[in-house]
# Entry
Amino acid sequence: MSERPNRERPEHPRSPRGTAARGSSGTTCFLPAAGPARTSGLRRPAYGAAPAYTAYPQGPKTNTLAIVSLVSSLVGVFVIPVIGQIVGIITGHMSLSQIKQTGEGGRGLGLAGVIIGWVTLGLAILGIILFIAWFGVIFANAREMGYSS
# Structure
């Protein structure tokens, strides 16, 4: 086999810190200049390390009675008219009292439950009164017209 010609590499012109040395195999290698001891071969970034990740701060816990108040007031509007609204009003006032004492979240939910409960209960009572009055007018007119049972 033919032997490879021995080519010497000149020292790198852009790196003034180190010196060139011949290795055991005859190749030229670059040796870094003596300086402060390094713990690793990587350079430290100039801008510093990134801050550690912290979890998003949790808000105050939502009061359960406030949620019950809103849900039961809405159930009172669509499913069980008077009972759901009364439950929503009572639990709403209880939740607002607890929120004031403990500092929990959910004041808006409790307030919405109370407001929806009172407004829809008022409308339901007004509707019942109008319904009874309407039937009173119909029965009064029926008697005048001669319809009797």
About this structure: The first helix runs from residue 64 to 78.
